Amino acid sequence: MNTKLFHYRHSDGLLNKVNPVVKLLMLIILSLINSLLDDLFVIVFFIICVSAMALNRINFLSVLKQSVFFIIIGVVFFITSHSFFKMLRYYNMVLICIIFTYTTSVFDLSYSLTKYSLLRKTGKILSLTLIMIPLALDSFSQVILAYRSRNFSIIKHPFSSLTFIVINGTKKYIEKVSSFSDSLQSRLFQV
Amino acid sequence: MDILSVNNICFKTDNKYILEDISFSIKKGSITALCGNNGAGKTTLIKVLKGLLKVSLGEIYINGLNVTKKSGERLKKIGLVFQDPDLQIVGETVEKDIEFGLRNLNLTSVEIERKVNKVINELKLIDLRNRDPLTLSGGEKRKLILADILVMDPDIIILDEIFANLDYPNVKVVLKLIQELKDLNQTVIIVSHNVEKFLFLTDNLILLKNGKVVYNGKSSLSIEVLKENEICSQNSFFENMLMP
Questions:
Q1: pLDDT at A1
Q2: What is the pLDDT of residue A67?
Q3: Between the N and C ends of chain A, which has fewer C-beta atoms within 10 Å?
Q4: DSSP states along B114-174
């Protein structure tokens, strides 16, 4: 299945039905537990995370394929700290975040937060931030593609290409944000 | 009765008039084509109508009510479908994207669900309900953003360059959608620089040139004006379709 990491997937799984605010609190609590647990319990925690994924029908192998970057970082942890459990704690953290983002819609979370008057603005700003991230990634990848299609070598001219990419990517991003803000305003979104 | 009346509106930026003395009115349930070449002021005009830009001079009436100074009112009463659907889709699933506008209206969950179900049935989006909007085809995306707007019950729907970047099968999907809107007695304004695809569906045509209205009348009588202003070719294929 073609899935993106840290991206919500609609499903009828148990975790999808849990209130997003409860899941956010659980994420914070489980992160703390993960860092405070005895070494041996970290393995149990890892098994619980994988089981939670299986229960919610999240394809572990697909997640593994897309997590190469995080796996490498974990290995670096292992090499530098000589601690298997530190690496496992890190992998547990990544797994908890993946489970949370796979089963929680950004909008459900932000609208659940806006029900609490103190968190209203936080919820709206959170949704706005999370909407803007893919726009930024898209703008910069478009600029990089445009350069590469004209045989512009980033390796040969690292500094000038970086300057071009940053300046033009930011320009493109601002253009997109301007159109996007019109579209949000037209659907009565207000912070 | 006129659902929208625009009286002598002007829009000025950097001491330059982008729109000058624009006046027209639109009847309820009609389909109007707003056309003009690039830079004619179409997008500025619809942004002014929608309330995204402030009117420099003139008045706008919706259902007889002066809404010139009430941009919030115009935001609610006019639904705008933008040119680039990707910049209008915000939800992670089709259903959540449709819900987005309703949630901003602070409706109850029961009411949101009822309205979403209604529009999903009307536009036959049931099979796409739980799909990621980014995986939809061009025509399906246009259908989704139309659902996003329809669900908010606007009095007028503006479609900005709705046929842009669509292949022939998807153009047919959108034409069918516009026909369905007409059947639902919706008031629609279709904005485009290329009217050949949809002129036969429209009742009236407004032609803009350099920020001014150069034609405002029946679509069926507009062919010569369109040819003169190079909006369509001299031997346009849709001429026969419009002949009474």
A1: 39
A2: 85
A3: N
A4: HHHHHHHHHTT-GGGTTS-GGGS-HHHHHHHHHHHHHTT--SEEEEESTTTT--HHHHHHH
Cβ neighbors of A63 (< 8 A, separation 6 or more) are A3, A5, A53, A98
A14 falls in which pLDDT band (50, 70, 90)?
A: confident
Q: Does B47 touch chain A (CB under 8 A)?
A: yes
**CB distance A52 to A97 below 8 Å:** no
ipTM exceeding 0.85, yes/no: no
Q: Do A187 and B91 count as a contact with CB atoms less than 8 A apart?
A: no
Q: What whole-number distance in Å separates Cα of residue B238 and Cα of residue B242?
A: 7
Structure token digits, residue A91:
């992998």
B236 touches chain A (CB under 8 A): no
Q: How far is B58 from chain A (nearest CA, A)?
A: 22
pTM score of the predicted model = 0.78
What chain A residue is nearest to B51 in terms of C-alpha separation?
A: A186
Which residues numbered 128-187 in A keep a CB inside 8 Å of some CB on B? 131, 176, 179-180, 182-187
- Structure tokens of B142? 């246009």
Q: Across the interface, which of B92, B101, B105 has its CB nearest the CB of A8?
A: B92
Q: What is the pLDDT of residue B3?
A: 92
CA distance B104 to B87: 18
pLDDT band per the 50, 70, 90 thresholds, residue B177:
confident
| Count of beta carbons in the 10 Å neighbourhood of residue B82 | 22
List chain A domain ranges. Answer: 14-104, 112-186
CB distance B30 to B2 below 8 Å:
no
